[in-house]
Amino acid sequence: MFTVNLSGQVALVTGAGRGIGRAIAQGLADSGAVVAINDIDAASATMTAGIVQGEASVYPADVSDSAAVDRMIEKIVAEHGRLDIIINNAGVEPRASILEMTDADWHSAMNVNLSAAFYTSRAGGRVMKARGSGVIVNIASIAGHNIPIALRSGYVASKAGMIGFTRECAREFAAYGIRVNAVCPGVIETEMTAHLRQNVAQMQKWLEDIPQKRLGIPEDVVGLVLFLCSDASRYLTGQAINIDGGKVML
Ligand SMILES: NC(=O)c1ccc[n+]([C@@H]2O[C@H](COP(=O)([O-])OP(=O)(O)OC[C@H]3O[C@@H](n4cnc5c(N)ncnc54)[C@H](O)[C@@H]3O)[C@@H](O)[C@H]2O)c1
After folding, report:
1. Distance 24 CA to ligand 1 centre (A)
2. Using alpha carbons only, what angle is made at residue 18 by residues 165 and 79, rounded to the nearest 5 degrees?
3. Which member of 21, 114, 119, 194 has the greatest number of CB atoms within 10 A?
4. Does the Cβ of 220 fall within 6 Å of ligand 1?
5. What is the pLDDT of residue 47?
6. H or E stretch covering 25
7. Cβ of 21 below 6 Å from ligand 1
8. Which ranges of the chain have pLDDT less than 70?
9. Which atom of ligand 1 is nearest to the CA of 45?
10. Hey, which CATH number is domain 10-243, 3.30.70.940, 3.30.428.10, 3.40.190.10, 3.40.50.720?
């Protein structure tokens, strides 16, 4: 596994109870960071903390609740003395046509996939600004880059919004020594995409459009995230980078 040296740094990963977030938490811990593992599901967050090799603490919270995010970041800083890295990974993918979608589904996509990144960036950005350094990585999606996915209007809109927010956040936070980038995965084999993989015909068609001819696995995303967290990417900010086996070439 690719690693960088993040010793002494404290990293928050939201939605790290499983899937891509869990793999990122593992990669950060392997790189020497102290990892604050968030998930709305306390049991899965605790399971991740048990799996990762290295120092990890659990911070269960609903990241779509701004007061809960403020409390979580306050607690991380109280317990670890600093916060250097935020990975905004928590996500939901409500599926419905626009004509059938409920307000609750629409708002869950907006609140978990987009507003949460604003809440953590606001609270965490204040902590990072005081130190004069920090890194934020937003897990968006190729869906935010004009890749149509049927019945996912809320998801697509939230991920496009995440890319826009990443740019504005990068512009504002550069003055404080904070870099902000987005990572845009293609289809990665996690519970979120289990239903997609069950549709063999649809999967076959999707694979035809991927030059590398395979879906991603969570570990495929980790190296890029670690690179973005490290000084190797010190002149890189405000970007939204696809990681998708070559499906999208901008
Ligand atoms: N899997 C893919 O193909 C894919 C592709 C592109 C982007 N992404 C994005 O990557 C991120 C991770 O996706 P995944 O595939 O690992 O999904 P997943 O469903 O396997 O995991 C998502 C995690 O987020 C947590 N979560 C949900 N709502 C939360 C909330 N309000 N507060 C805190 N935690 C919450 C869940 O409990 C879960 O542990 C998401 O933002 C997703 O949109 C995934």
Report:
1. 12
2. 75
3. 21
4. no
5. 98
6. helix 19-30
7. yes
8. none
9. 39
10. 3.40.50.720
